[in-house]
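Hey,
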Amino acid sequence: MTTRRQILIAGIATFGVAVLPAGVAAHHGWGGFDRSKVLDFTGVVARSTYANPHGTLFMVRDGQELTIELSPTSRMQARGLSPEDIAAGKTVRVYAYQNRGNPQVFRAEWVEVEGRRVQLR
């Protein structure tokens, strides 16, 4: 006999499996970034995250906040970029490509902090 709980769990599992690949593909589709529209910007980090699926820098340029997507934490750690390197108040240089659908979002190729360049891709 199937219980209501089993039906609910099966429904959630089915829905999650059906939706997850599309969401993951959409999020990690780096083809959504235009390599001809480059941001080469030095500025102060307003805030940042050092978490998966990838770190994020938030910086202000010309009065507008930019979102700069970094690498997963394991890659940043392996390449020597620490949470302190991208903490709020730090001055960093970012080389990144603009998102085709949202001009305020960029994908970083590298970050330079205190004269040290860290390749992220």
